[in-house]
Specification:
Number of helices of chain A: 10
Helix content of chain A: over 70%
Structural class of chain B: alpha/beta
Distance between the termini of chain B: 36 Å
Number of strands of chain B: 10
Strand order of the largest sheet of chain B: 6-7-8-3-9-10
Mean pLDDT of chain B: 83
Radius of gyration of chain B: 18 Å
Order of helices and strands of chain B: HHEEEHEEHEHHHEHEHEEH
Structural class of chain A: alpha+beta
Oligomer: heterodimer
Strand content of chain A: 5-15%
Largest sheet of chain A: 4 strands, antiparallel
Shape of chain A: elongated
Number of helices of chain B: 10
Shape of chain B: globular
Strand content of chain B: 15-25%
Low-confidence stretches of chain B: 1-7, 12-19
Helix content of chain B: 25-40%
Distance between the termini of chain A: 22 Å
């Protein structure tokens, strides 16, 4: 009888124990997958904003159209600039109100919306090049301020760093939880199958022979637990996206994405490996028959 | 035995199909050489035990509870280690085997316990097949071999039954079948009739005698005096850490008195 068949026989006899363990492992992995999902989407957002290559040059209220045209012409001659679009106060107000039924914003006069030059930069424009252009524009008398959105990217990068740290911490907790759950289950299983193990040792089974099915059971618990977690997180993700996709798109400019397949597959592999390691560790001391 | 030999995996050459080792065949199967064992320093269980058991012998071990019958058997299958002295099984010192060699020793020894040690939710067939599965014997041969052994212990046709639903006598027969299915050189029986009524005990003893008839050495530990008197056999009486060897059974009072004297 192969170790797999022996593991199947053992798993069938203690199936309630295994189901409980799989569920506990799944709960731990759901926490980790959810944290990773947030990290992944913040990263996508940061990358999207970092790549967006645009800047808004807000003009002073007293800046003339001629001054704006002059800046516009100068900007068009810069190598990294793809296009420049003048947005008047009226245009800005119209764009903000477009598709919104907000009475407060509707009551605001055009003067509340500064005229601007919307600059689109080429993809190869580095952050330092953008910063240099912004600094040059900033000193012009007609320019009120220049928004390069870099501060937002930096903030997102900071959020991402914190998120990665939190996810790493959570991962450590999850790893400990998975090891603890699987090890406890295997110990319980071993207690329930004490006679089987004792008999196996008495008839000349090697420790490896005795261990193998338990290690397989541990690996299966870890794998199924993490698979279940992926399924649950995937289902939750689809539900959230189907309800809030438009709002999220309008708010942050991107549609949320699920974990990359290699991350999801990696979590399943890690789950299986952790289960096997936990089972191996829990058996080391208990096999001294 | 050299130190190098002591470290080598234990692979006796007596199993059918293996190469015959004439040197091993000439040695006694078991030699206890000044064996000491104590769980507490002030209460030794075995004190300088010296014994030699030849191939094919049937030997009773008897004595009061705590005399060391089970300990002696546990020393044999390396569940415990001697404090000093040597136990030679087929010329190999059991006490000096490396942990990874112990399973190979145990594959040559069948053990039967008072509490049967069966996996009750498994079928009889699965319980008996276990030692063959450990050896990696093909399923086809396992099926044939288990069928034969179950016939031999009087459980032909009961292979599919769950071990837990059998009577005590039947469960002990399953345990015996499991012990002999690999054709071991030695069978150890640790109070195998302790949980059985007198008639069943005699039946089980008969089964061990049948096994012994095929050339298997049987060491039968019991404190049931009635079993010792059924047939005159070699009896080793353990008491106060010492062994008294009575070659022709306790029934021969004159011989016993002679040994005591």
């Amino acid at each position: 009888m192969s170790p797999l068949e022996r593991a199947w026989r053992g798993g069938r006899s203690d199936w309630q124990l295994h189901v409980l363990s799989i569920f506990s492992v799944a709960v731990a992995f759901v926490c980790m997958a959810a944290a990773l999902l947030v990290v992944v989407n913040v990263q996508v957002l940061r990358d999207a904003w970092a790549r967006s290559g645009r800047a808004s040059v807000y003009l002073r209220p007293d800046a003339s159209r001629d001054a704006a045209t002059e800046i516009e012409t100068a900007l068009r001659s810069v190598a990294k600039v793809r296009s420049v679009r003048y947005v008047s106060s009226d245009d800005a107000r119209r764009e903000v109100l477009d598709g919104r039924n907000d009475p407060i914003i509707a009551k605001l006069p055009s003067a509340a919306f500064p005229a601007s030059l919307e600059v689109s930069l080429t993809d190869d424009a580095s952050q330092s090049a953008v910063q240099k252009i912004a600094e040059t524009l900033q000193v012009l008398p007609a320019v009120e301020s220049v928004e390069t959105y870099q501060s937002w990217t930096e903030r997102l990068a900071s959020v991402l760093r914190s998120g990665v740290m939190a996810a790493a911490l959570l991962a450590a907790v999850v790893l400990a939880a998975v090891v603890s759950v699987v090890a406890s289950t295997i110990r319980l299983t071993l207690q329930r199958r004490r006679i089987e193990v004792e008999v196996l040792k008495l008839i000349g089974a090697t420790d490896d022979y005795v261990r193998r099915p338990f290690i397989i059971e541990g690996a299966v618990q870890g794998t199924l637990g993490s698979l279940l977690a992926m399924g649950l997180v995937g289902a939750l993700f689809l539900i959230v996206r189907s309800r809030f996709d438009d709002e999220l798109g309008a708010l942050i400019g991107i549609s949320p994405s699920f974990l990359p397949w290699h991350v999801a597959a990696g979590m399943v592999v890690v789950g299986g490996a952790l289960g096997a390691v936990a089972a191996y560790g829990s058996l080391r001391k208990l096999l001294l028959v | 035995m050299t130190r190098a030999n002591a470290g080598a995996p234990f692979r006796p050459m007596l199993r059918q199909g293996d190469r015959f080792d004439p040197e091993a065949a000439r040695k006694p199967l078991l030699v206890f050489d000044d064996v000491h064992k104590a769980y507490r320093a002030d209460a030794p269980v075995l004190r300088g035990l010296r014994l030699s058991i030849e191939r094919g012998e049937f030997v009773f071990f008897t004595g009061p509870s705590g005399a060391g019958k089970s300990t002696l058997l546990r020393l044999l299958y390396a569940a415990e280690a001697v404090d000093s002295g040597r136990i030679l099984f087929m010329g190999r010192d059991v006490g000096r085997l490396r942990p990874e060699s112990v399973p190979y020793l145990r594959r040559n020894i069948g053990v039967v316990f008072q509490d049967f040690k069966l996996i009750e939710n498994w079928a009889v067939w699965e319980n008996v097949a276990l030692p063959l599965e450990v050896l990696g014997v093909p399923q086809r041969i396992i099926r044939t071999r288990v069928g034969e052994v179950l016939e031999r212990v009087g459980l032909g046709g009961r292979g599919a039954d769950r071990a837990g639903v059998l009577s005590g006598g039947e469960q002990q027969r399953v345990a015996i079948a499991r012990a002999i299915v690999c054709e071991p050189a030695l069978v150890l029986a640790d109070e195998p009739t302790g949980n059985l009524d007198p008639q069943l005990a005699i039946d089980i003893l008969g089964l061990f005698e049948d096994i012994n008839e095929t050339g298997v050495t049987v060491l039968f530990a019991t404190h049931d005096r009635s079993l010792l008197d059924i047939r005159p056999r070699r009896v080793i009486v353990l008491d106060d850490g010492k062994a008294m060897d009575v070659p022709n059974g306790l029934g021969n009072a004159a011989e016993l008195i002679g040994h005591v004297a």
